[in-house]
């Protein structure tokens, strides 16, 4: 029986036109690099953003923690400016899906490699409210280890009283989302093509399903719960 669905934010439930990774690219390239957006997406998507910077720099065999932290500080400043100007919307059918799940007593969790400040700003800009549209927000600020480690999912389970990861689905737009779900032991891991990674990239992480619109998750949940109750 599925009791909880954990959704990534940017690219999965939030449509921000890749502004995070475009901003990450800008902050890194201001230091004299020439990384493409595809490189930044391939290496950084889904990760806590300081770790994403480290991963991109490692493409050039650069391991420089002071540099990574300097870029990260600049990134946060640039992102605040970008979000003030950027139209932030939900991905198609996100609220409809959340309502359908919660109506069936399935918990809706948002989790993200963003820090708490950024994540809350996104939620507020869309107009979602905890307890009405979703049940819990878990961010990189809440855990010691970030994706692909399962800490955010395990924390959500603990806080919402779900003891068995076989009752959890993870949905995300990057391979690291899928890896996170698998590491947590989630029963079903779903890739979605609305964000950072392509169908082929998502496929490389071996999710149980790949969807193109959030509403496609409903029949997956329904089928799973019918099988469980059979």
TrEMBL record:
Gene3D superfamilies xref list: HAD superfamily/HAD-like, Putative phosphatase, domain 2
Ranges annotated as spanning the membrane: none
NCBIfam families: HAD-SF-IA-v1, PhnX-like
PANTHER family recorded: PHOSPHOGLYCOLATE PHOSPHATASE, PHOSPHONOACETALDEHYDE HYDROLASE
Name assigned to this protein: Phosphonatase-like hydrolase
């Amino acid at each position: 029986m599925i009791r909880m669905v954990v959704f990534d934010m940017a690219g999965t439930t939030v449509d921000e036109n890749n502004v995070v990774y475009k901003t990450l690219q800008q902050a890194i390239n201001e230091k004299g690099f020439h990384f493409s957006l595809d490189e930044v997406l391939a290496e950084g998507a889904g990760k806590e953003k300081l770790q994403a910077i480290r991963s991109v720099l490692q493409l050039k065999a650069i391991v420089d923690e002071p540099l990574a932290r300097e870029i990260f500080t600049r990134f946060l400043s640039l992102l605040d400016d970008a979000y003030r100007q950027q139209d932030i919307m939900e991905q198609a059918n996100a609220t409809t899906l959340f309502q359908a799940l919660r109506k069936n007593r399935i918990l809706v969790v948002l989790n993200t490699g963003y820090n708490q400040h950024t994540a809350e700003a996104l939620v507020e800009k869309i107009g979602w409210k905890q307890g009405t549209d979703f049940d819990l927000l878990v961010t990189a600020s809440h855990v010691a280890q970030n994706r692909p480690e399962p800490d955010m999912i395990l924390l959500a389970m603990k806080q919402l009283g779900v003891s068995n990861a076989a009752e959890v689905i993870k949905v995300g737009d990057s391979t690291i989302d899928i890896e996170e779900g698998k590491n947590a032991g989630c029963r079903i891991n779903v890739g979605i093509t609305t964000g950072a990674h392509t169908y082929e990239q998502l496929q490389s992480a071996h999710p149980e399903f790949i969807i193109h619109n959030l509403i496609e998750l409903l029949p997956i949940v329904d089928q799973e719960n019918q099988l469980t109750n059979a």
